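Predict the assembly for these two chains.
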Amino acid sequence: MADKAQIQEAIEVQGEEVRKLKSEKASKEQIDEEVSKLLQLKAQIGEDDGKHQFVLKTAKGTRDYNPKQMAIREKVFNTILGCFKRHGAETIDTPVFELKETLTGKYGEDSKLIYDLKDQGGELLSLRYDLTVPFARYLAMNKITNIKRYHIAKVYRRDNPAMTRGRYREFYQCDFDIAGQYDAMIPDAECLKIVYEILSELDIGDFRIKVNDRRILDGMFAMPWKEVRKEMVSEKGLSEEVADQIGEYVSLQGGMELAERLLQDQKMSQSKQACAGLTDIKLLFSYLQLFQVTDKVVFDLSLARGLDYYTGIIYEGFLTQTGIAAEAQNSSGAEESVSVGSVAGGGRYDGLVGMFDPKGRKVPCVGAEVMYKKNPKLLSQLQYCEDSGIPLVAILGEQELKDGVVKLRAADISRADLIAEIKRKTSEA
Amino acid sequence: MADKAQIQEAIEVQGEEVRKLKSEKASKEQIDEEVSKLLQLKAQIGEDDGKHQFVLKTAKGTRDYNPKQMAIREKVFNTILGCFKRHGAETIDTPVFELKETLTGKYGEDSKLIYDLKDQGGELLSLRYDLTVPFARYLAMNKITNIKRYHIAKVYRRDNPAMTRGRYREFYQCDFDIAGQYDAMIPDAECLKIVYEILSELDIGDFRIKVNDRRILDGMFAMPWKEVRKEMVSEKGLSEEVADQIGEYVSLQGGMELAERLLQDQKMSQSKQACAGLTDIKLLFSYLQLFQVTDKVVFDLSLARGLDYYTGIIYEGFLTQTGIAAEAQNSSGAEESVSVGSVAGGGRYDGLVGMFDPKGRKVPCVGAEVMYKKNPKLLSQLQYCEDSGIPLVAILGEQELKDGVVKLRAADISRADLIAEIKRKTSEA
């Protein structure tokens, strides 16, 4: 007798077959035949003898990582880690679960995606949904007002994940945040520079980083849209249909010059908070120019981020190419072309720490999170990943070229050979 | 008005004061006065205005790690990781939660300590209790019969933790396991060698590794204790009281010679499974002698390990010294002398993978887990931990001396300086 896992797999395959026939509008006879096979399979599960009833699987939306996948993860994390450390960040760790009330009221609508722990007669707990809220709780609890910290750890969301796109219910976030009082936009620009550096170094194809400001969005939504519509039709000669798309602003993309133009815009300039946002975007782009990252960073008024806690600048990094998912989970075993899309995001959240402080004292914060997803291109590129067996390695990547440095890495060398080995290496150079 | 967290702290301090006075049998007046203060504090909590009601804390039995503590953790993990890799292990990762039924029936009485997730309308899930059961599930699911794997990750137990001893509800385990068919006791001996190497390299004080065999324990419990008692009194001249301590065998400690002696023991030799265990212990010690680790490994018949899944050799590593816990959590703020005790453990579990396999196919496995606890001695020893700013480091530790190698590690060097730097280093050497 076939085992339960095999039968369940057969049921899934058979179910797919039935659905396919129905969508193809196959003959009733044909469909009935396949449905009957499906029912037979389902009956088999019911007739099981009670032995070895285990369904051998991981929880929905989660996965194991085998040694090869772990080697890739290590490589990716080392790149990210190297960037975070280069920017002078320290790391902290927080528990995987928090008091439920710590997470309450921080995520808006997304709160329904939080995993709760069962009430087993103690505190009410939830799995962390991101690393930002635990970070704010940590700052408030330890009365820290100034820190550059990174945190690479798993977070949990009861989402309906598209696993073929690398989305899971358990996934890693790599967070970098700057807390403390600084001149306006300096830490914000550093966070964008970090996203730029990491996406460049990971070498996962071309990317763009969209930037917007929460206050510009809020300002836009507060506008008297009837008047905006009238202006669009009468003054700018747009058709009424186009004008009805109140998201007209939202199609705007640009850089510093767009922020300047919008500051002159009659409607936009009526909103104090939109002006504050636009002024900050202008200042931000002046720093981004100094950092030489404006080739990939774009001011995009359509960018919105769901979480409640953002108060200023928001940003998101996107891969612009579609990749081939080597392990796309379709039943035919064929490869699927998938779009990975957003891979990093963040923004300014000046109010979050204050929500935890008994006296409401605010600690201004800004940060980026990089999502770790299964990446098809890297998967095929990095077949080796471990530096075993190679006694002395000089690493000369894009970043090292930029910085004018060479990374020198050495493995175990026998003591007797040490001097000779280094001398030989240096004389060869 | 003081905030809630401050008041709750004050309530705890005041509660302690009251208990102290009661235990000291202080005067009724004195106790009444302090009780009234306590009630006032409790009333304050009730009168709170509903604003900022957050209790700023981590979940019971969990803690944050600050950057200094993280640097120590990194140092410790690098040592452990280095040992695992030296022994040729690969790493895997599994989700933090499993289907509840995956954990069912694996931990005996300890099952009550498993954290369950709330039923939010999907699968029933539990947080992993160890890394061994998920590993067995992984092997069965992927039909892997041969692997040396390590896994460093957090596990969860709803224990009443003694946090001053470094015990928490969320803690790291560093697991190394060998799955597959090998000549008897070869992988078991390697696991013990790894515990020996790690405890030596971590330099956390003297240690012992106790070894026993599940079958010897089972054999002992199956013995006719009345006869054993009679024999002890009549033949060995022991007092009746001593003989009544049926745990007489259990006080025995030794090495290979003890296993040999017990194989001759009339009672012990009647149990087939005890004999099998003793024969394996003998063979194990012959390998341990070759590995030169018998100075710290002791055959100890008192050693028992709680988990249901062990089938053969079991072992546990203990620190023999008491340390000073720098952050002992007593109210006076004074340091406390604490015993860390068991820091590593493991054994052979030949039946576990078969419990997941629909056909019950067994995969013999053996492995060690090293518990990561806050370690007082390391805490004071490692104040720097990061190798930043030092361009070229030669590491010559105990292990490197033993292996006759030097670990050479280099940081970023400017390209222009590369040749000069290495030449300078080598000419100095």
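The two ends of chain B are 65 Å apart (CA to CA). Chain B touches chain A through 81 residues (CB under 8 Å).
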